[in-house]
Amino acid sequence: MSEKKAIIIGAGPAGLTAAYELLERTDVKPIIVEKSDVIGGLSRTYEYKGNKLDVGPHRFFSKSDRVMDWWTSKIPIAGGEEETITYHNKTRQVKGQDLKPEDNKMILLKRRTRIYYLRKFFDYPISLKIQTFTNLGLVKTMRIGFSYINSVVFPIKKENSLEDFITNRFGRELYLTFFKDYTEKVWGIDCNKISAAWGAQRIKGLSITKAVWHALKKIFAGIGDVKQKGTETSLVEQFLYPELGTGSMWELVADKVKERGGQILLDKDVESIKADDATKQITAVEVKDAKTGELTTLSGDYFFSSMPVRELISKFDAKVPANVKEVSDGLVYRDFIEVGLLVKKLAITDELSNGRFIIADNWIYVQESDVLIGRLQIYNNWGRHMVADPDNTVWLGLEYFCNETDDLWTWSDERLKELGAMELDKIGIINKADVLDAMVIRMPKTYPGYFGTYDRFQEIQDYVSTYENLFLVGRNGMHKYNNQDHSMLTAMVCVDNIASGIKTKENIWDVNTEMEYHEEKNA
Fold it and tell me: Residue 154: CB partners within 8 Å, gap ≥ 6?
């Protein structure tokens, strides 16, 4: 019998997980084709002169036991001889003495995330402590309180938009204060034009009531506890992280895939997807080498796609129904620019700085409307190995959300570096004179939009599901705002189905729609 093969499009978390699981649990050989020349997809780690940065914050936590076990079996957890770490009511003994200094390790980080608004810091999620009310002022605080009561007594009966969704859970005044401007900065569109489904996926279980209850439960929280179940993602306060950056996890998985006989082909762009309409099977993909231009046809028995859905449909070598093509063409994506900025020190301190030249935040949501920056990473607080000289410099990641059609996307790197330094100086985070170096990365199609023709996405889902051996996985592959653990789970469930002979794909699409997997507003 000839060996069965799976062609996997994309070497991100979903594609690599699919390949690893196929080798672990089936006799199917995976062949990954990746458009770029690096591993990791949206979870890759960039390096610049010894300083590392990720494309957005990638915490290693999940409400899935399966994912937590998967991660911690690949990279050991760092710690002392007597230390234990608990997640999901499981206790894992940490043996730091077994790890060499050069080994990659999972480190336990305390999450600190805040909102920067009115040139002041606010807890995220918003807390009910005195500083919050002092920063807002008495009048604003009273308006927020009465607005929340009004939303409880007179809720919007039909939630047609994200604006309706958030207003019902937090009140209109709090929505206008802490949600509207930032969310519209991220998506480039009014919240009343974004589907309520986005809120249902990202913040369904979070509310003022739950935030208050969580604050009360914190008193009883155990040290070293990263368990997730029963806690909304926005409220999780500790997480694991690979010492050498998010991408190091996926580079390790890629190595294991190759060691076990899988293939990973880089610089291979999918030109067309061959489909047999009679049998409703995908038969092959044609790929083009980015360096030589050579075309190669790869045949297979199973096909996984984590490429953007709009590209997938456009490359289908089949009679795609007009309505499906229309929906696909109308799907919208949001693109991403990150400016890495190396500075001598920050211009701000707070009560948790402890005399250091840096605040304790992992990342900050920048709510200020007079700057374009949306979010700020402080990589020193993601581990010492993320910064070349963590004792004398601060390594920052300035995140900008835009479209490839925007002028900002076409700006030169030098102009973007200047923008980043100027904006952080303007809002008092740094002094521009303290900037030592900078770099720029651009990542297209980082966020699938819940607007455009998204309300008709079911038409695409129904169509691709008719091809029995085609599996859509990951964030862009499913046009679904998945985090890396959700993307992994979609791949795992696909392999479950293949191994068990299950034909339905509903369980794949159910990942991150159940209450257990709901995420936060803008991770």
Answer: none
